[in-house]
Structure formats: structure tokens, C-alpha cells
Design a protein that fits this description.
The protein has about 400 residues and is mainly alpha-helical. The protein is built from 11 helices and 7 strands. Among the domains are: about 200 residues, MetI-like fold, CATH 1.10.3720.10; about 60 residues. A 3-stranded antiparallel beta sheet has the order 1-2-7.
Length: about 400
């Protein structure tokens, strides 16, 4: 007689799968409860002192000036517009800082591996100094020891059309002409036509095996459109604006105030010192056998770097460099230390005037979080575009 073996059902309090789900749900409930407690406690505290949580104060008049700005602003504008002007100043530091620090980091990273003793030594000293000192100290040094000690505007002497004074750094720059819209339309059409001609010439070159110089045709189309536009408008899309001194201020050109220059240089040199080591590590990660094979084929060091080493190293470089970009964006809030009116500085002023501490801090938190997430998204897209495609 066969005995039937029956499986006993495991009680749910001893089931590992059930327990795992239970502890995760319990953890989420505890986190939500703690957040709710703090939020409710903050709202009750605001109610006790007669302040209600809300963002209606953003429509009130700011009543304070902003010394440096990209957009038009006056003290009669709202808190909302003042915060947005501070946000654009933060973007200005972040975007320019990322661009310059990337170039400087790549150059110094390549110099760290150079056969030239001077280039290798200068890069090494740069990294050791700027990477091992606090960024806030560097910003103070740039501001108080470098830019504020420059000559007064009355005593400054132009150097190749550039002025370096304690009122800021001023360079010749481009200003748009009245026909800029016409030029933009024509250039867009020229690019479309040029690409069509380039593609036709490239197809003929592939069919016949004879060089049809598609790039020259492309440049020729753009040149013809540009020449016709210049004949019609009698001016280019931009003109050079040269700075001049008028009394105790500069007019024309591009001006970097001491505050903006200090925060920009401080963040750039600090961030680039980390990017330098990331670039150096990325280049060293490429197999030496490939470099030796390229040298055996007679390729120069520049061509090896351009076509073999760096395209492979970029896949290793991008993820850690993204972290440095995020650090630069967040460290831009240190601009308040030298009086540059970024989002954090303007937000502090709004907070002190309105008394809306939680609301203003929440706005700044969301803005900085958005900048970081957008930067990460862009770099992740670029990272996916450069990675190896596996079968």
C-alpha cells in the first residue's frame, strides 16, 4: 500500500518571500511616517508664529537689487522673477565652468602622461595643489588675493584690447547686428542645401570610385549663400565690440566681474584637477598592445591618441566625469561667499525678507536637484552613444 506523502503548507510568518515583502513594506511605511511627522511638525510650528505654508509670497515685490544679472531686473519685480534671475546666474557659472574645466582637465590629463618632463611636472604640481586644498579657500584666494589686487580702473593699461582691473576682466566680444535674423534663416537654408549636395557627391564618389570632394562642395554652398546674404544686407551677422573706459566703468566688450571670475576660476581649477586624474586613468586603461601596434604601423603620437587611445578611454572617463560635473553645479552655491548673486544668494535674501524659510529652501532644493538630474541625463545619453555595442 503506497503511502501518500502530503506537503505541509509553510506558515506565512515563516515564509521567506512573505517576510522579505513584509519588511520592505514596513520600512517604506516608517520612512513615510517620519517624513509626515517632520512636515506636520514644521507646519504646526509655522502656524504657531502666524506663518502659513504656501507660495503666494512669490508674487510680492522683491524690493532689493541684484548687482549682476543676465536678464532685465529691477527691485520692483517679484520674488519669483528675482529667484529666476539668480537661477540664470547659477546656470551661467555651471555651463561655462563645465566647458572650461573639461578642456583644462583633458589637456592636463594628457600632459600627465607626456614624455616632456616640463609638461608632466607642471601637470603633476597643478593636480597636487588644487586637488588637495578646499575649494572655498581657493575661491577666497582668487577673489581677495588676485582680482581685488588688480590695478584700479583709472590706472589700468589695455593689453591687446583687454582690461584687467579690480572692476573685473573685460575682453573684446561679439555683438549681433540688425540683420542677425536674416543670417540665421539663410544659414539654416544653406546647411540644408549643403547637406543635400554633400550627400549627392558622396553617392557619386562611392559609385564611380573617383573623389568628388563632397566636403568642398558643402563648404562652397555655405560660402555662396553667405556671400549673397552679405551683398544684400551689407553687414555680417555679428560685429566685434571693443571695450572702452567711460569714467569709472567699462562700456562694450565682455566683462567678468571680480565676483563671477572668482567663483568661476575657483570651481574650474578645482574640478579640472579631478578630471585630470580621471583622464589619466582612462588613457592608462587602454591596452598597451594596441598602442605598440599603432606605433609599429608608423602612426604619430597625436594620431594614436586621437584615433585609438582617447576613443576607447572616453568610455571609462564619462561616468566619473559626470560626478565632477554634478559637484561643480552644487559647489556653485559657494558663490554667496564672494557676493555673486546666484540662486543660493538670492534665495537667502528672499528668505530673510519674506520669512518663508521652508518654501525658499524647498525651491532651491528642487532647482539644484533638477540641474543635477538633467546633467546626469545628458551625460547618460552621451555615455550610451559611445559604449561598445555587443551582439
Amino acid at each position: 500500500m503506497e503511502k501518500e506523502i502530503t506537503r505541509q503548507k509553510i506558515p506565512f510568518w515563516r515564509n521567506i518571500k512573505v517576510l522579505n515583502i513584509f519588511w520592505q513594506v514596513l520600512f517604506v511605511i516608517l520612512v513615510v511616517a517620519v517624513i509626515y511627522f517632520f512636515i506636520q511638525n514644521a507646519i504646526n510650528g509655522l502656524n504657531r508664529i502666524g506663518l502659513k505654508f504656501g507660495f503666494s509670497f512669490l508674487s510680492s515685490s522683491a524690493n532689493f537689487p541684484i548687482g549682476e544679472k543676465i536678464l532685465e531686473y529691477s527691485p520692483t519685480n517679484s520674488y519669483q522673477w528675482a529667484l529666476f534671475v539668480g537661477f540664470t546666474n547659477t546656470l551661467k557659472v555651471t555651463i561655462i565652468g563645465i566647458f572650461i574645466s573639461t578642456i583644462l582637465g583633458i589637456v592636463m590629463g594628457i600632459a600627465r602622461l607626456s614624455n616632456n618632463w616640463l609638461a608632466r611636472s607642471v601637470s603633476g604640481v597643478y593636480v597636487e595643489i588644487f586637488r588637495n586644498t578646499p575649494v572655498l579657500v581657493q575661491i577666497f584666494i582668487w577673489y581677495f588675493a588676485v582680482f581685488l589686487t588688480l590695478p584700479r580702473i583709472q590706472d589700468v593699461t589695455p593689453i591687446m584690447g583687454m582690461y584687467f582691473s579690480n572692476r573685473g576682466l573685460v575682453f573684446p566680444w561679439f555683438s549681433t547686428t540688425a540683420s542677425i535674423i536674416t543670417w540665421l534663416i539663410v544659414v539654416s537654408i544653406a546647411l540644408f542645401v549643403g547637406r543635400y549636395v554633400w550627400k549627392k557627391m558622396m553617392n557619386k564618389q562611392l559609385e564611380t570610385g573617383i573623389n568628388k570632394y563632397p566636403t568642398l562642395w558643402f563648404l562652397g554652398c555655405i560660402g555662396i549663400f553667405a556671400l549673397l546674404t552679405f551683398i544684400l544686407t551689407k553687414e555680417g551677422p555679428v560685429m566685434i565690440s571693443r571695450p572702452e573706459i567711460e569714467g569709472v566703468r567699462f562700456i562694450g566688450g565682455l566683462r567678468f566681474t571680480p565676483e563671477f571670475a572668482a567663483i568661476l576660476f575657483g570651481l574650474v581649477f578645482y574640478t579640472a584637477s579631478y578630471i585630470t586624474e580621471i583622464v589619466r586613468g582612462g588613457i592608462l586603461s587602454v591596452q598597451k598592445g594596441q598602442i605598440e601596434a599603432a606605433k609599429a604601423l608608423g602612426l604619430s603620437d597625436f594620431k594614436i591618441l586621437r584615433f585609438i587611445t582617447f576613443p576607447q578611454a572616453i568610455r571609462t572617463i564619462i561616468p566619473p566625469v559626470t560626478s565632477q560635473y554634478l559637484n561643480l553645479a552644487k559647489n556653485s552655491s559657494l558663490a554667496v561667499a564672494v557676493g555673486y548673486p546666484d540662486l543660493f544668494s538670492v534665495g537667502n535674501t528672499v528668505l530673510n525678507q519674506s520669512g518663508k524659510a521652508i518654501e525658499v529652501i524647498l525651491i532651491m532644493l528642487i532647482v539644484y536637484l533638477s540641474i543635477s538630474l538633467i546633467t546626469s541625463l545628458i551625460m547618460n545619453i552621451y555615455n550610451n552613444a559611445t559604449r561598445l555595442v555587443e551582439r
